[in-house]
Amino acid sequence: IAVMTSGGDAPGMNAAIRAVVRTALHYKIDVYGIRQAYAGLLNGDMHLMTSRDVSGILQKGGTILQTARNEEFKTAQGQRKGLRRLNENGIEGVIVIGGDGSLRGAMALERIGIPVVGIPASIDNDIFGTSMSIGVDTALNTILDALDRLRDTATSHNRAFLIEVMGRNCGYLALMSGILGGAEVVITPEKAPAMEDVAMQMGDAYIRGKSHAIAVIAEGAPYKINELLEFLNNKNLGFEIRLTILGHTQRGGNPTAFDRLLATRMGVNAVERLCDNEHNIMVGLNGREIVPIALEDATTKEREISADYYRMEHILSR
Ligand code: ADP
Ligand code: F6P
């Protein structure tokens, strides 16, 4: 079999690679590491992995196999080339660790006859069929660390802060960090208050005697953080306003215990299912269980954020 990491890197990918490699070796299956995702597959950039190749990586962020985005693999010709490379090395199954785009690539491999099991890894938590993807918990903790620090300085200066977090089109990181970091306002792609309402809420926080106001805005929100800053600067909120874009700091760092455990469980489970001839699936977390989800569902259905979290945020931010 072969394993690759694809799409945006996520903390815990290394723990998943380690689990996949060691589980395969445990069952006496040769395992190739494909470097740089589908780009590496097309270049035949793959090598057999030993248990020592995955020593000392459990706790590291990023991915030792590196990752890439690749347009050629989206074409039928690219996929045929990929199949040829796999055949050249006698590879009979692939484990793809990555986000929803990467899982669409996995489905393309299935369609041309290669059994695939996907492992959801993306800080965005936008993949259907799993309550958590690998990397989300670590990213959330990184955001909270930044938010706590920003609050210290905001309070000291009586300032408002606008903080942009990642998530592509998904507001999960923004909403959860808003709730857990005690933000006054949360702006997500799914639910964005009008800028006028943001101004009202932040101005209201000032009037009620708060020493700071924090707005967390998802990068995929309908308006950009700079637009919002300009809009708010033209209102008299009481607070001076500063802006922070957390950017790629959210992608790095050592995985938390939660992410290491999730990656480890998913890695072992994915190999065991592939060995049992269970494929065309992604492994997902459902309650306390790791369960199979059809790749078709994982890549076509929308993961929704529970309305309850929005309700909670509304109650607690006042
Ligand atoms: P993520 O996996 O983090 O969502 P992307 O959406 O960028 O990241 O997808 C990663 C890679 O997966 C793409 O660069 C491409 O190589 C592959 N991929 C995405 N969609 C498809 C598709 N429909 N068919 C084949 N490969 C795809
Ligand atoms: O999917 C993970 C993610 O970090 C998104 O949150 C973000 O929109 C995107 O990747 C950034 O991609 P890049 O690393 O290519 O700038």
Provide a compact summary of the structure.
This protein is α/β, with parallel strands linked by helices and 318 residues long.
What does this protein look like?
With 318 residues, this protein is an alpha/beta fold. A 7-stranded mixed beta sheet has the order 3-2-1-4-5-10-11, sandwiched between helices. Helix content is 42%, strand content 17%. The protein has helices at 13-26, 37-43, 76-88, 100-111, 136-157, 172-181, 195-207, 225-233, 257-275, 295-300, 307-316; strands at residues 2-6, 32-34, 46-48, 94-98, 116-120, 159-165, 185-187, 213-218, 240-245, 281-286, 289-294. Helix 1 (13-26) runs parallel beside helix 9 (257-275), helix 2 (37-43) crosses helix 3 (76-88) and helix 5 (136-157) crosses helix 6. It is built from 11 helices and 11 strands. The termini are far apart. It is elongated, with a radius of gyration of 22 Å. The longest helix is centred in the middle third of the chain and has 22 residues, at 136-157. Bound molecules: adenosine-5'-diphosphate and 6-O-phosphono-beta-D-fructofuranose. The site of 6-O-phosphono-beta-D-fructofuranose has 10 residues, from loops.
